[in-house]
Amino acid sequence: MIKDKVVIITGASSGIGEATAKLLAAKGAKVVLGARRESLLKQIVTDIEKAGGQAAYQVLDVTKPSDNERIVQFAKDTFGRVDVIFLNAGLMPNSPVSALKTDDWNRMVDVNIKGVLNGVAAVMPSFLEQKSGQIIATSSVAGIKAYPGLNCPGFCGDVFYLNYAANACDFCCA
What we know:
By secondary structure, the chain is an alpha/beta fold. Helix content is 51%, strand content 14%. A 5-stranded parallel β-sheet has the order 3-2-1-4-5, sandwiched between helices. Helix 3 (65-79) packs parallel to helix 4 (102-130). The protein is globular. The relative contact order is 0.14.
């Protein structure tokens, strides 16, 4: 089912993104990795290729619409199309709201919300033209229930929005 699918993964240089890239490539997907840390991306692509998988990478800052557009075009140029985008890039600054780390809040909104929207905007024209495609985004139960110490309302608000926006996209684009 995933064999030969072309999957873009943001936030692919570590954690969930890296693990997802390696798993999907092992199952036959062609993965296109995007993140800011090029040296880590290079190593992951090397690991995937040594294991017999197909992978490519491009440095990506999800807060820049042009970077998102470039990775979609890169995936199409490299593997012929895009079937799935996994919007996994995210930040979770961990400080109480009373610390007033507003720069962290702004960066979190830029990456966790605007980064997702930039990814959707970049891939949607291809999916509409193909009449197929899947958008997947990493979220958290913190979007359903607030947890002490998770920089609520910052992080909790981000993932609440993400959950709501994904549901709205289902209605608008399905």
